[in-house]
Amino acid sequence: MKAKTPTTERPALTGLNAQELSEVLGLKSFQGRQVFKWIHQKGVLDFGAMTNLSKDLRASLQKRFRLSETSFIDASNSPRSGTKKVLLRLADGESVESVLLRDKDRTTLCLSTQVGCPVKCSFCATGLSGYSRNLSPGEIVEQALYLLRDEAMEDRTPNIVIMGMGEPMLNYDATVKSVRLLMEEEGLGIGARKITVSTAGEAEGIERFAEEDWQVRLSISLHAANDQLRDELVPLNRRYNLRRLMQAVRHYGYKVGRQLTFEWTLMEGVNDRDSDLEELVALVADLKATVNLIPYNPVSGLAYRAPKRSRCEAFRDALSRAGVKATLRIERGQDIDAACGQLRRRQGAARVASPSPDQNSGSAPSSSSISS
Ligand code: SAH
Ligand code: SF4
Fold this sequence. Notes:
The chain is α/β, with parallel strands linked by helices. It has two domains: about 20-65, DNA polymerase, domain 1; about 70-355, Aldolase class I (TIM Barrel, Alpha-Beta Barrel). About 35% of the residues lie in helices and about 20% in strands. It has twelve helices and 13 strands. The protein has helices at about 20-25, 30-40, 55-65, 125-130, 135-150, 170-185, 205-210, 225-235, 240-255, 275-285, 310-320, 335-340, and strands at about 70-80, 85-90, 95-100, 105-110, 115, 130-135, 160, 195-200, 215-220, 260-265, 290-295, 325-330, 370. The longest helix has 15 residues, at about 240-255. The relative contact order is 0.15. Iron/sulfur cluster binds near residues 121 and 200.
């Protein structure tokens, strides 16, 4: 399950901080900061449009460097559910999908960290569609830049959930670097508490995460509270069983002292039974934790389905009665977790729609098809 690295040899400029940009581009540090602001604050992926750089410098940079690692393929916008999905093509022909979700007063971006996912959870569309490679920091950040194009954000900053395709802890360094870039004051300036990283339970990554000097939130996708069922649903459990996982989770909770979140995707007859409830309570009752219940979002080709609404509510209420804080996301399609869980690696997606002819184009994506 060792993750491969991207095939591109040069680092994506979008994955560099201001200091690194100055070094790589051979610029003075204030110019590196100017380029960084253009990319991350304004979403400009074209040196030619960076008007506070001299004309000569712009032309020279344009000639020598390729700014972005991805190109826009397609966007689908569903005003009814408030979701926008963006499909980007990567330099090696792979593609990656990410989602924006609008709520009344909140915009959330769901970003991917890998092309497909090597964990292959039995219920997940991403796992089903295979795995190709890790994404670079630039490829992760560019998803946010494209999703935010043409979005009327006023003064809001978006929330970020690293819950798209892939297991972030299997691409740890790139995930951490991209999160730091998203947090940069001179970039999007997203507060650490508005960022959540979700893991299927990679214990070593959770322990490393506990050592980071930040307030970024962590969410653990549990789904089962006994090893037999969890081995089946989340195959990573065979490497880090529940005892090992909970050891890492406790270490994290002790070190960080913040509220933990567990995700529990409710699947009828699989993990919604009374015995599941009892096991879950026994596992987490003594932790400062919230269990986020998400009714299963159907995936074509898989037989899992969500329990009836009344059963979901009963499961939530029973957790609460047992002293475990629980939330239930009911609104289908409106739910960022469910929307994220629907991202699937599209093989040959680069051929689905023709990419923009100029990969460095700083203009907003031109084609935008409307579908749900
Ligand atoms: N790999 C990481 C993050 C991406 S998956 C992880 O597993 O945590 C994001 C969340 O969506 C996980 O909690 C995952 O279990 C959930 N998910 C996947 N497929 C789903 C589906 N069909 N319905 C509801 N949730 C799903
Ligand atoms: Fe990978 Fe997460 Fe899907 Fe499991 S649920 S296959 S870890 S993306």
